[in-house]
Amino acid sequence: MSETTEYEVVVVGGGPAGLSAALYTTRLGHATAVVDRGGGRAAMMADTHNVIGVTEDISGMELLATAREQVESYGADWFEDYVESAEAVADGDENEERFRLETAAGEEILADRVVLATGFSDVRPDPPLPRTGAGLHYCLHCDAYMFVDESVYVMGHGDSAAYVAMIMLNFADNVDLLLRGDEPTWSEETGELLRAHPVDVVESDVTGVNNGEDGWLESLEFADGSVREYRGGFAMYGSEYNTDLAEQLECELNDDGTVAVADHGKTSVEGVYAVGDLTPGHNQVPIAMAEGAEAGIDVHMDIRTYPMSLEDIEGSSVDEGDVPAVPEQIREAAQKRE
Asked: From the UniProt record, which GO molecular function terms apply (predicted)?
């Protein structure tokens, strides 16, 4: 174990939500570190959709790399690492709780505030499957536009799959719901509604995938011997939320597995925030960025040094030699940017 490194803010997760939170806390003058193991849903994006000012030829990896450069340029530290454990510890000097994080690489990090941006993983159906991003998609609001007037499939057997299939009728007139040999688990009401929409429910499992020269899906083969042409579609098998650290810190969870949050991403544990796909709501890059920004601003409002309270000043005044309160690392980064 290395020596303990201390920060005012530690952000766990380097996706759009975590990077946005780190950008705000760093620019607002707080010693900040980001711990990111790499990967994530945003990193998988072949193209970036629905982000104003970002053209669609920018991949998720390019978007995140640029954001990381921004955050580091303002003086934040970056750990390419994985946080294995987190716990609240008593601070004897201030009589307040802080948070100790231990990483897979042996780093021990102490933080005044923690922002969890660990997201979730989409549950993938069994192969054979089209290539992710080139015929296999998970985000309806991101990618439905790509399939206007195309043949589309939806894989799944629950209510969410049935509703996504019906929603796709807003964009295409040829939509199939692929059960892949599973029995439907949607409700009776959903089944009745589905039967009233022109969605073809295919019971047979997928046995083969045919791609074009550009790598995009062209058709799927089925166990009953049929071949159906598709441009692409969506897999709807649920989500696995990365809540290990939230549970270790005893944050309250919702019934759907997300972390329960109040305004600005505050969890049930004081000093711990959760943002992005880890929390309820739409899983969109701009929304994740906004949640990260709100959390970052709230952290600043909570831990900024000035204005001090009358109780802290105790009838005196702030010494000119004590300002500014910006950490030296951030001051140096700011001077380099001038």
From this structure: oxidoreductase activity
The CATH class, in words, for 4-121+239-337 is alpha beta
Domain boundaries, the chain: 4-121+239-337, 136-235
Taking 90 as the threshold, does the pLDDT of residue 49 lie above it?
Answer: no
Helix (H) or strand (E) holding 27: helix 16-27
Check if the beta carbon of residue 29 is closer than 8 Å to that of residue 131.
no
Q: What are phi and psi for residue 42, nearest 5 degrees?
A: -65, -35
The candidate with the shortest Cα–Cα distance to 49, out of 127, 129, 183, 139, is 139
d(CA 294, CA 276): 11
**pLDDT above 60 (res 173):** yes
With a CB cutoff of 8 Å and minimum separation 6, the contacts of 287 are 281
Phi, psi of 117 (to 5 degrees): -135, 50
CATH architecture of 136-235: 3-Layer(bba) Sandwich (3.50)
> Could you tell me the two tokens for 218?
């062209």
